């Protein structure tokens, strides 16, 4: 068996490199790639597309052993039938359609899924859940996202008996950058909380590996979530491998 292949969802953004200025590119912070590769997998960046549907998603997923639904801008509140709060960022329909398709297409399968920040919110919305559009209105502080492009840090406590607790233990300090959070999450069990009552992680207790966190593990030095994802992807790849 070769190394498992992990897809990582991305943006299409205008970027500059060398002599090329303001050119559309498929982008994701390299920290995601580094963590996936350090954990022993091959990383593949998946650009978004506005016409993505579950059929397209399944075509892509057939070629993967696992997927990371990465962080990014706010999910369009219209997708969970809510009125838009003034703080909500401009929507990215290409990412919304692509990642919601991935979340729905992977539900009920054994493909390992790790949702990170926005990815957790996408998974909740795909399942029929709702988001808190501006978390400071609920918790009364900005510690989850202290300033533009500045990560906060705070402890989270895992729920005993969950897969996440088995990976991270009872408590862990996490790098945080989000002004939204998951309010309802049909089909998922809560697996970590912040001290202020913010849901920090959820998982599907009936899935092989389907886990999401509200923080940004790719920013920190703790590799355990990526190691667990890749280990699950390796098991799945071995199951699918033809026997001689």
UniProtKB/TrEMBL annotation:
One Pfam family this sequence matches: Peptidase_C26
Organism taxonomic ancestry: Bacteria, Bacillati, Actinomycetota, Actinomycetes, Micrococcales
Record keywords: Hydrolase
Keyword hit for Phosphoprotein: no
Top-level taxon of origin: Bacteria
GO MF terms held by the record: hydrolase activity
Official protein name in the record: Gamma-glutamyl-gamma-aminobutyrate hydrolase family protein
Stored InterPro entries: Class_I_gatase-like, Peptidase_C26, PuuD-like
Family annotation (Gene3D superfamilies): 3.40.50.880
UniProt-listed PANTHER family: GLUTAMINE AMIDOTRANSFERASE PB2B2.05-RELATED (PTHR43235)
PROSITE patterns in UniProt: GATASE_TYPE_1 (PS51273)
């Amino acid at each position: 068996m070769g190394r498992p292949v992990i897809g990582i969802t991305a943006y299409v953004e205008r970027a500059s490199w060398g002599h090329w200025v303001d050119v559309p590119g498929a982008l994701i912070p390299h920290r995601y790639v580094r963590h996936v590769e350090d954990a022993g997998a091959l990383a593949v960046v998946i650009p978004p597309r506005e016409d993505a549907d579950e059929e397209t998603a399944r075509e892509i997923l057939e070629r993967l052993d696992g997927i990371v639904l990465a962080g990014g801008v706010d999910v369009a509140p219209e997708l969970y039938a809510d009125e838009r709060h003034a703080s909500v960022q401009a929507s990215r329909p290409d990412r919304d359609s692509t990642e919601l398709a991935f979340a729905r297409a992977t539900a009920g399968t054994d493909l390992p899924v790790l949702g990170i920040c926005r990815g957790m919110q996408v998974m909740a919305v795909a399942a029929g859940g709702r988001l808190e559009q501006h978390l400071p209105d609920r918790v009364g502080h900005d510690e989850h996202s202290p300033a533009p492009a500045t990560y906060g840090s705070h402890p989270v406590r895992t729920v005993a008996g969950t897969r996440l607790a088995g990976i991270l233990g009872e408590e862990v300090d996490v790098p945080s950058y989000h002004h939204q959070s998951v309010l309802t999450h049909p089909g998922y069990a809560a697996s970590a909380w912040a001290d202020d009552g913010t849901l920090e992680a959820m998982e599907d207790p009936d899935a092989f590996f389907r886990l999401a966190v509200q923080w940004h593990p790719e920013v920190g030095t703790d590799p355990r979530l990526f190691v667990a994802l890749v280990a699950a992807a390796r098991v799945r790849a071995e199951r699918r491998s033809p026997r001689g």
